[in-house]
Amino acid sequence: MGIPDEPRRVQAYDGELGAAVARAQEGDESAFAVAYRIVQPGLLGYLRGLVRDDAEDVSSDAWLEIARDLGRFKGDGAGFRAWTATIARRRAMDHLRRQKVRPRSAALEQDAQDLPRPHSAPDQALESLSTECALQLVRGLPRDQAEAVLLRVVVGLDEPAAARVMGKRPRAVRTAGCRGLQRLARQLGVADVTHEVPRTLGEST
Question: Is the pTM of the predicted complex or chain greater than 0.85?
Answer without folding.
Answer: no
